[in-house]
Amino acid sequence: MYISKSFIPILKNNPSEAKIKSHQLMLRVGMIKQSSAGIYSWLPLGFKVMKKIEKIVREEQDRIGVQEILMPTIQSSEIWKESGRYKDYGEEMLRIKDRQNREMLYGPTNEELITDIFRSSIKSYKSLPQLLYHIQWKFRDEIRPRFGIMRCREFYMKDAYSFDISDEEALFSYNKFFLSYLKTFKKLNLKAIPMAAETGPIGGSLSHEFIILAETGESKIFTDKRVFDLSIDNAKLEKQSLENMRKEYEQYYSVTDEKFDKTEFEKKVSEKNRLITKGIEVGHIFYFGAKYSKPMGASVDLPGGKKDFVKMGSYGIGVSRLVGAIIEAKYDEKNEVMKWPISIAPYHVAIIPMINKNDNSQLDKANNIFSELKKNNIDAIIDDTDENISSKIKKINLIGVPFQIIIGKQSVGDKLEFKEVEGEPQMIELKDVIKIINKQKEKN
Ligand code: ATP
Ligand code: MG
Question: Which residues neighbour ligand 2 (ion) by CB within 5 Å?
Answer without folding.
Answer: 284
